[in-house]
Amino acid sequence: MDISAALVGLVGNVAVLAAAAALTLPLQYKFRSLRGKVGLGILFGCLCLLVIKMPVEFASGAQFDTRAAPALMAGYIGGPISGLITMAIGAAARYSEGGTMALGGALSLVIYGSAGLAARALFKTLTWPLLSARALFALAAAGTIATLPAFFVDKGLAFGLAVLQQAGFMLVIGNMVGVPTLGLLIRVFQKSYEKSRRARDDAFITRLAMKAGRAGIWEYDPRTKTFTLDEIGAALMGADEARKGIAFDDLTAQLDQKDQKKLQSALQGACMSPTPFSVDLRTTDKLGLPVWLRFQGSCANPGDPDETKHLGILQDITSEVQTRQQIKKAAWTDHLTGLANRMVFDTLLEKNCTQDPRARPFNALLVLDVDNFKLINDNFGHAAGDAVLKRVAATLHEKAQPGDTPIRIGGDEFAFLCSCPTAQSLKQRAETIADAIAKPHQINGLYIPLDVSIGAIQITADQTSATETVLFADAALYAAKETQGTMVSVFDQDIEKKFVRRKRIENKLLQADFDTTFSLNYQPVVQMPEGRATGYEALLRWKCPDGTNVSPAEFIPIAESLGLIREIGAWVLKTAIKEALTWPGELRVAVNVSPHQIGTGHLASYVEMLLRESAFPAERLELEFTETVFMRSDHSTLEELARIRAMGIRLVLDDFGIGYSSLSYLDKFSFDKMKLDRSFVTDVTLNPTRAAIVASVVDLAARLDIDLVAEGVETLKDLHFLTGTGVKLGQGFYFARPMPAADLPLLKQPARNSAGS
């Protein structure tokens, strides 16, 4: 047989292998199962049978074919079960064919199968991919070498050598071509099948995801201006089934004109660019409920007018939009009152002040807070306090006109953005709101009187700072609080002057050197009628570096608002004790304490340290508190007061009678002394009501065993009346004005030598 005929036969064998390689596809993902391994063994066994029927015969009677490929691949790919089945089928088929090398031919199939199994184990150890070209050629070479002994089985060594000499090239070529061809084709088909399967899986998962996410597919033809929708997309647009050729106007009939133009503009723009677009639209479902849809897509073949079309997805984003709205509402709404919150206030006011004055939605700002709100919380409970805030919010909402925005800034502070043409109309508007809130309200079964203070400002064209606008409105609010009986104050030049002065005082306080600018004056508390001093009240004075004096009534509230009062109070205590150390031992020193200094425990600790370090007797120190100290925190305040009193320090209730609940505070805590406010002493001889009040307080103090000091004693008539009523201690200009420590008589008499002169 010539070489050309042999090669033709070889090509026929290889062609059969190529066709058979595709048959492995149904089994390629089942090799690990028993059924898959058996199926693969049968498949390759039948392939052996087929190529054995198509041999290349030589003159010596030897037959050659490509049986090595399926025999090697069976064990190599499928493992022992596949390999044994293929060996059995192939060996039986070859032996039944007969010929001079029937036994050797059958044995070669067993050798090939065994070589495939051995190579499988070896290449896995070497981490070679089983179907790589390198592994397949190595497998073919190993199988060829391993099968050589089969040539000598039938007729001995000489015959076998003669056959190899005559047709050995066919053995090598057949195996080196057949095995890689079958293996590589299997790999190609596997990759193709895997890619196809992944695409099907991805498409299936995508459809599941789109169905779960209520997303449909759409296609738009710009030439005919028609849409094609799948089932989900059609359902989202109100149709019962998938539809083709839906006109743009019909599809968008449920959209408002603005959304129709938005979608049309996006589609037209997509024709000019392959960039994807996304448009959110609002429509309604069959029940009339709002539904939000998102059109996403891009243009395919944008450069070819005949092939241009738009493809994309249509998704129901109603839940997303509603969640976004809920988050926005939570972020922009006060949870207690339902009004807009501080974030809205800052945003609206900033936008309002920075835009063209002619386009501003608001030209006026009101800021208000509830007077004595802490007292309401303390006396009626926090639930009542919350109810009060809700009532105020409801009133603001009721009084709001179209375009107005009522806001809760925080705590008991509210704001009201509105428009008023004049300052007078703004004041009238604020007074209307204040009057509506000030009516007694029944809250949780209790009638609670409410009062508010309102500061208002017109936002003029030259006002472009939101921060400055709020500061001016706050200044008007302070003015309203400071003026007796006034609930409303509109920012004007007088308030601006006070505001500017306040800011200057704030700056000076923040930079003040306490030791060089602060000093203490002392006013005596005397035994009446003889006028003997029992002690002195320390009164803080502040002289700025420029030589100007600032009244404590002016700078103390500012120091409290700046958070400086604790430092200033500590300086006063330390200085008063230091200077009182030089006085006669029977004289006491009294120091006023701000409500901002107590309630945390720091004051008690600081006083204890001062007394220990200075060796000043505790019984010579008096601390004076006004009733407002109890409006901050009852429990913590009472605890700290008790701690201070336990040191031996005398506690004084100052300005008794001018607060809301003076008697209730006497019941809450036992003071050593109380000071009758000067308002009851002034003109007491001319006012029978005041005289009766003084007599009642004298009786109350005697029953409670509390020392009573009358403040504001300025005339001899005052002195005679008070001593006649039973008041034993007095303080006022009649005896002496406040003076520096260096000017104190420090004897047993104050500046006025005789109370009767």
Automatic annotation (TrEMBL):
PROSITE patterns the record matches: EAL, GGDEF
Domain GGDEF positions: 361-493
Bilayer topology: Multi-pass membrane protein
Ranges where the EAL domain occurs: 502-752
Keywords for the protein's UniProt record, in alphabetical order: Cell membrane, Membrane, Transmembrane, Transmembrane helix
Keyword Iron-sulfur found: no
InterPro entries xrefs: Biofilm_reg_signaling, EAL_dom, EAL_sf, GGDEF_dom, Nucleotide_cyclase, Rev_trsase/Diguanyl_cyclase, Sig_transdc_His_kinase_LytS_TM
Keyword Membrane belongs to the record: yes
Lineage start: Bacteria, Pseudomonadati, Pseudomonadota, Alphaproteobacteria, Hyphomicrobiales
Gene3D superfamilies: 3.30.70.270, EAL domain, PAS domain
Pfam families (UniProt xref): 5TM-5TMR_LYT (PF07694), EAL (PF00563), GGDEF (PF00990)
GO biological process entries: cell wall organization
Alphabetized GO MF terms: phosphorelay sensor kinase activity
SUPFAM superfamilies the record matches: EAL domain-like, Nucleotide cyclase
Name of the protein in question: Diguanylate cyclase (GGDEF) domain protein
Compartments reported by the entry: Cell membrane
Originating organism: Roseibium alexandrii (strain DSM 17067 / NCIMB 14079 / DFL-11)
Cellular component annotations (GO), alphabetically ordered: plasma membrane
TM annotation in the entry: 38-56, 68-95, 101-123, 135-153, 168-189
